[in-house]
Amino acid sequence: MPSIQVRPAASSVDREQAFDIRRSVLCGELHLGREAARDPFDEEAFHLLALDGEKPVGTGRLLRRGSHWIIEHVAVLAPYRRQGTGRSLAAGLRVVAVFWLWDRR
Questions:
Q1: Do the beta carbons of residue 76 and residue 57 sit within 8 Å?
Q2: Counting Cβ atoms within 10 Å, is residue 59 exposed (0-12), middle (13-18) or buried (19+)?
Q3: Do 74 and 23 contact (CB within 8 A), yes or no?
Q4: Which domains are delineated in the chain?
């Protein structure tokens, strides 16, 4: 089983890698519309990237809409599914949401 690291997609290169994964999985495999790969909310969202070494293998984002925090656009490349990668991304995004809420108290 690969050792997956999850970290913020902080740079423009990281974000492009995240969008590439979304395009491949959400648009290519699941046949969702182009907006699944990229939309106007990406600028305000917090993105995570899952990596196997240096290889990007998954992504997800956290978006605030009103008083709600939404985890969405979680996408994992096929060889890395059913190994906890998506769960790790969701857990990381939940931690970020808790810290944002705590910081705004």
A1: yes
A2: buried
A3: no
A4: 4-103 (3.40.630.30)
CB 35 within 8 A of CB 23: no
Mean pLDDT, residues 49-66 taken together: 93
Strand partners, 48: 8, 60
Is it the case that residue 34 has pLDDT exceeding 90? Answer: no
* 3-state per-residue secondary structure call for 2-67: CCEEEEECCCHHHHHHHHHHHHHHHHHHCCCCHHHCCCHHHHCCEEEEEEECCEEEEEEEEEEECC
The answer to pTM > 0.85 is: yes
Question: Residue 81 contacts by C-beta under 8 Å, 6 or more apart in sequence?
Answer: none
